[in-house]
Each structure stands twice: as C-alpha cells, then as structure tokens.
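Follow-up to my post from last week.
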Amino acid sequence: MHPLNRRGFLGLTAGLSIAALAGCGTAEPVTSASTPRTGGRLRAAFAGGGAKEVLDPHLANLFVEAARSKALYDKLADLGPDVSAQPRLAEKWEPDATLTRWRITLRQATFHDGKPVRADDVLASYARILDPARAFRAKSSLALIDLPNSRAVDERTVEFALKRPFVEFPNVLAAFGAYIVPAGTEDFTAPVGSGPFRFVSFEPGKSVLLKRHDGYWEGAPHLDELEFVIANEESARANALLGGQVEYAHDLTPTTARGHAAGDRMAIHRAPNSAVQAFAMKLDRPPFDNRDLREAMFLLADRPQLVESVLAGSGQVGNDLFGKGYQHYADDIPQRTRDLDKAKFLIRRAGAEGLTVKLDTSTAAAGMVEAATVFADQVKGSGLTVEVVTGNKDSYWADTLKNGSMSSFRSGAMPIETHIAQRLLTGSGTNVTKWARPEFDALYDKAVSTVDDKQRGEVYRELQRSLHAEGGYLMWGFADWIVGAAPNVGGISTAPANTLDWARFDQVWLG
Amino acid sequence: MSLRRYAARRLAIGLVQVLAVVTVVFLLVQALPGDAAVALAGDNPDPQRIEQIRAAMGLDRPPLERFGEWVGGLARGDFGVSLISGRPVAEFLHDGLGPTLVLAVLALVLLIPLSVLLGVLAALREGGPLDRVVTTVTVGLHSIPEFALAVVLIALFGVQLRWLPPTAVGADLLGQPAVLVLPLVVLVARPLCSISRLVRAGMIDALASDHVRHARRLGIGVTRIRFAHALPTALAPAVQQVARTTDWLLGGVIVVEAVFVIPGLGTVLVDAVAGRDLPVVQGLAVVFAVTTVVVNLVADLLVFRLAPRSVAIA
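User reply:
Got it. Predicted complex:
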C-alpha cells in the first residue's frame, strides 16, 4: 500500500512537471497588428452567466451573448459609431408619406446552411419575438409593428405596417436582440444564422467555438476561428491575457488598464461614451419635486473629481444629458460646473437646510457605490446631507424604480430617442425619475413624426434643453469601455459598447 | 449493534437530513430579495417585462405548489429544469461535478500521503530541526487564505515567470494538466497543515501509549511497531479531518474556481444563486447534503476499522 502510494504520487508530480514544461516556452514572435492578415484562432474572454447562457439570439442578455449573437446572426439594422441606425441585412428602407408603412429591401445574404435570407424569415423572426406568451427582450421595441398587416412583397422585400407614425423605425430594426433567424427555428443547440461566423461547438459556462463563414455578405472575416471563453473574474480575464491563454479580454477595470497601459504584453482599447454614470432623482415626491433642490444637486457635483476618482480617469464628464457624442446630442448647452455658493442659496430657498437625503446604491454596476460615496462627500458643507444606503444588488434595478427618492443609475449606449421613449415619457416602463409632462410627450411625438433630419434634430435639442434645466438625472460622467488585447491583435473598434462595431470580430485579425 | 445496521441507520438519518437541508434552502432562497425574473431582466428593467418573464417561468404559481412538485420529481430521480435556461438541472450538476471531482481527487491524492509522511517524520524527530521546519512551513501555509495564495502564485508563476498557465480558461483539465498545478497547490496548502499536525500529535501519543510500549517490550522491530502498531491509531483522528477536507473539496471551492476559471460546482452554485435559479440551487443542495452524509459515514466506518476502541457505536 505505502510504496504504491508513493510511486503513484511521484509519477503524478513527474507527469505534472512535464506537462508544465510543455505548456511554456511556446512564445510566438510578436508581429505587427497594423496590416490585416487572414487566418488563426482568436480566443476572447468574457464574463458569463452559467445557467443563463443560451445561444438563442432573441434571449441574449449578457455581453458575451450579445457578442456571440453578432458573430452568428444579423439584424436588419444596427447602431453605428454615433449610435444611429445603419443598414445591415436591410439594404435600404423607405417609409410612405404617413410614416406608418415601411418598405425594407433585403440584401442578398445566405444563412450558414446555404439558404437565402428571405422576407418570410424576417417576418417569422419578428413574430417569434412578439409572441404574447414569451418575454424576449426586443419585444417592447418591436411592439410598434402591426404584424398581421405586415407582409412579404417578394422574396427580398418586406412591408411593415406600424401602429403609429414613427420616423425612427430603423432604431427598432436595430433593437437589442432583434436578430433574423431562419423561419421556424426553435432549436438553437446548433444555431444557423447569416452572420460572419458559423457554429462549431458549445459548452455552456465554458466556451463556444465558431469558424469563418466564407459566404458572408459583407466579405469573409479575417479569422479562421473565433472562440469565446468564459472567465467571470476580471482579474482572471486579465491574467489569461497576460499569460497568453487568450488574445482578447473583454470589460477590464480602469485600474487594470492603468497598470498595463505602459507594458508591452497587453494593448488597451478604450471605447469612449459607452456607459453613462448618474444619480436619478424622483420628481413625483419630496424632496426632489422641488426644482431648486434638483438644481442644487446638479451644482454640487464636482464632475471632474468623480471621473478622476470613480472612473480612474477613464471617462468624460457629463452634462446631465444622455448620449454624449451620439446623433442628436445637444452639445451646444453649456457644461455645468460646481458652484457651491449658488447651491447653498438654492437649498436655503427650497427650505431644505439640515435635510438628510438617502442615496440608494448597490454593487449592481461597477463604480456605483464609489460614486455615491464620493458625491456624499462633495455635498458636505452645503447645508444638505446625503446618506449612502447600499442595497441588494440582485434586485436593485427593480427596487429603485419604485422606492426611494435618489438612486445610483447607469446605462449603456442606445439612441437618444430610445432613451427618451423608455425612460422619460408619461407611460415609459422604466421611468426612474418619474418625469411625466404632457408637453414633453407631445414634443417627443412631434420629433418622431418629423421627416426632415434638421428639423427633427432641433426638436430633440428642445427636449434636451428642458431635461437639462429641470430633469431628474444628474448625469455626471461617461465611462470608457475597456478591452485588453494581445499586442498583435488588430482591427478592434472603439465604438461605444452595445453598438455594431463593439465586440465585432469579423473585422479583427491576428497580426 | 453490527456495523451494517449502524450504517443503515446512519443512512436513514442522512435521508431525513437531506430533506431538511432542501427545505431550508428553499425557504432561504424564497426569503432573498428578488426572484429569477428580476435577476434575468437585468439593468433598468421594465416591470411589465418582469411580469411577462415571471408568467413564462411559472413563478406566478404559489411557492408551496412549486416546491411540492419539485420534491415529487426528486422522488422519481428528476431534478427538474433550470428556470432560466430551461436545461435539465441534472446537466448542470453533471457539468459542474466533472471539474470539481478532478480537483478533489487529485488534491486528496497529493494531500493524504504528503501530510501523513510529514506528520510521521515530524513525530519521529519530535523537537528536532526537521520537526521545527515542517511545523513552521505548514503553519505558515495555513495562515495564508486561499485567494491570497492564489493571487501571489498566479502573479509570480503565471504572469511574471510564465512557467505555468495562470488560469484554466477554456482548457480541458485532464488534457492540459499544467493548468491544474497552481490550483492544486492552493487547495492542498491549508489542509496539509491541519492534517499533518493531527498525524504528528496522534503518532506522538501512540508511540507513548501502553500497547506500543508493550510491543516494544516483546522485542518487535522498530519499523513494525511504528507502522503496524502506532500508525493506525495515529491516523484515526486525522481521518475525521480528511473527511471534512473532502467535503469542502467536493462542495466546489469557489475562490479557487473563480480565480483559476474552473467551472465546477461552486461556480454553478454562485451563478444559480445570483440568478435565483431555484431548481438548480436545490439540486446542488441535494448533492452537497448527500456528499456530506456519505463522506462522514465513510470516515466513521474507516476510523472504526483503524482504531475500534476510539469510536463508540451505540
């Protein structure tokens, strides 16, 4: 018994050390990332969700699922670098004069099984998303479509009927998760799409392997193979990249980026204006039903300090408006800066001296607790006290929608129109600030039925002016989205997260 | 009472314990704020969408009804399906069990001989330089938490020197055993101390005990006395500690799994709790409870074999 054990043990350690030796010493020469090159397998590390992970693109929710969906499937439209809708599978779109009927011409594209993408596939995909018995994420965006009255004109032409005039219909076509799947698909164990990569294998919670789709309508990708691997810890993604186990590490912290920016083992790619960081004040209840008090809060925020401390400098200051750098952003409104004296005056005028306000926050999103703590500190000396309350992270978003008067807020990129529709209309589903004004709703309706781009832009500016002056969102900053890659990886875009070019691997190559 | 009847009774009690654990886990998850629909809906969710998801998952039915249905399924060996992905829970358990078993078995294969060897050597040279070195090193290792040791080892051997892969991301554990070296070192480091200390103490006691002294008087050889007479008695207390360690390893050591990216049972559990995926959480509770009951039973039976007098089987 004893010698056998010892021998077994020695044999095992010997085996392990041989394997260890074999595992290293294979450092490849670092080549240039500047010229596109065909071939190779790129391994990309993302955080995953274990049980939540699925390959059904309509169920996609996590970043890794969004990135995989994009590799395997196409939408009719997607969001460009300025977060405006760009044609994808739709070659063009033409509304009629009433803006309630839209004719979409499809590109000549094929699914991975060689079958063409037809108008029927588009209608069937949307019908699946709109199924009343199910709860797909794109459902609320697509709810505007009057599906029974929409039809396939021919193989490559769809005519959509809308329930009301809507000039921003391309935003709907670009909605998160509105992917086109072959008609009748319910089984996604071996997904077939029209995207730049085709499916090879899937191990939930561990990895997905894809390979190049040579017949992709936009041209075949540079990479031979693309492997998504799951590493939930940020440090593990960074370590895997440093150790040469992956070539792409998604979603790194500013601290990691700062630590490795100067080194030669990791290239840092920043996508500015990817996520807005804010505090949401509720307008339908005290104390923030008082406009003076809201303005005082706007004036108390030291935005450069928040960006420097909470985002470790990886971001820009915000001006209490969503969508910096996006299409229709009101960049002509002067930037707010800290003004303690005026804030004190406003607090006194509001009769709020000595008041303590609870600021609800949680670790549901990176930086929220830190931002709340820093802000509470900045408010000191103004006559008002902000008390930070850290709540449960798993139910945070549902809780803050209903409860409290001030809460941490964070949002990824979406068109400014979508932000308004989802959060700032009287009937919006996620109206955290409880901003409900009939004249604002009317102005929004005017914007989405104004065909002329310039005129429409003017209406959006007007909407933003009223939000800037009286709204409930204190949007103090925009965080960069940070991705790490091996130095030989080229073609990584810096478009905001959630847009088409973010985590888009058909344009990426291994130099 | 015979050993067999004792084992049967322990198993029966174990069954009741498993059911109790599952019930408590169900109640605790119910008490957590938020449910699977809230967890799935993500950032800034529309309450209407949460309601739709809730209805689609059947979460609008009374909790007691869902629990009853699940227990009924369990009796037929059916663990149910995940609320979120719709995949069978058995698949999750199967997927997570593989990496956890690989780590646990290899860790024990390294740990047991090594700690017995160190414990015995230290006991035979009690108070000598070797004893002091072994004590210092093992106590030192014991005082470092797993995550700290893991981070230091990764930074040094994985990232700086590049001798070993820093994580097991995307790797096939048995196909690329190099990825297992650092996690195993971390897993073995702390139990090595507790077990070797117990073996050392047990060995010192055993060598001073009456029956060993008697054997010595009978003129039996030193080696035989040490390994045939003293060692079995010395191992008895350590067996309980090995059982505790085995239970800990089979539960999926989440810190090690997270830092080294090894998707074992611990990772499955954390994901399932975060997603409020009740059937998966309950399935894991069953597995962990059964493991605990079985491991402890085996340990008790083993101790009985090693040192019959040290266990009172009532």
